[in-house]
Amino acid sequence: MDTLKGWERAIEQAEQALAEKLFGSEAGEAEVVRAVLRTCDEQAVVCSSHRTVVPNVYTLELPPPVYAEMGPHLTAVGQELTDRLQHHGERKGYEWAGPLTVRLAAAEHIPNGRYQVRCAPMEHITAAPLSAPDL
After folding, report:
1. Cβ atoms of residues 118 and 107 within 8 Å
2. SS3 per-residue string spanning the chain
3. Under a CB-based contact definition with an 8 Å cutoff, are residues 43 and 95 in contact?
């Protein structure tokens, strides 16, 4: 019985740690927000001196229990992450590969207390050649 209680406490602590990563503290941005922004920066493609393109679809993968627990807050968290990413992109002068979207998803391969950020350009977006300016 003690072993079962120990496992339960460990799972609760992992979920609490992930909640702190998601929502942060008053001291600064949440770890998850920093991870999304960092992922954006790492995937930036400099096309010219005036054009840097970044992916427009970001997925925050969470363990299924955490995803289920966040149920009523998923839309609000996704919108907050989208707003933060939009602001970050404006500050950096990024061009999105299409409409910006941040979504949360349950992923079986993510252990409790962890998360993963994935990003990609929308599949139907294709690169268009830049036309030379008229001289």
Report:
1. no
2. CHHHHHHHHHHHHHHHHHHHHHHCECCECCHHHHHHHHHHHHCCEEEECCEEEECCEEEEEECHHHHHHCHHHHHHHHHHHHHHHHHHHHHHCEEECCCCEEEEEECCCCCCCCCEEEEECCCCCCCCCCCCCCC
3. no
- The residue with tokens 């942060």 is 24
**pLDDT tens-digit series, residues 13-65:** 666 666 565 655 544 458 888 999 999 999 999 999 899 999 999 999 988 98
Q: Are 47 and 91 in contact (CB under 8 A)?
A: no
Among 50, 51, 57, CA closest to 121: 57
- Supply the pTM of this predicted model: 0.70
Hey, how many other C-beta atoms are within 10 angstroms of the C-beta on 102? Answer: 22
- Compute the distance between CA of residue 100 and CA of residue 83 in angstroms, rounded to an integer: 9
> Phi-psi category of 98—alpha, beta or left, where left has phi over 0 and alpha has psi -120 to 50?
left
Which pLDDT belongs to residue 127?
55
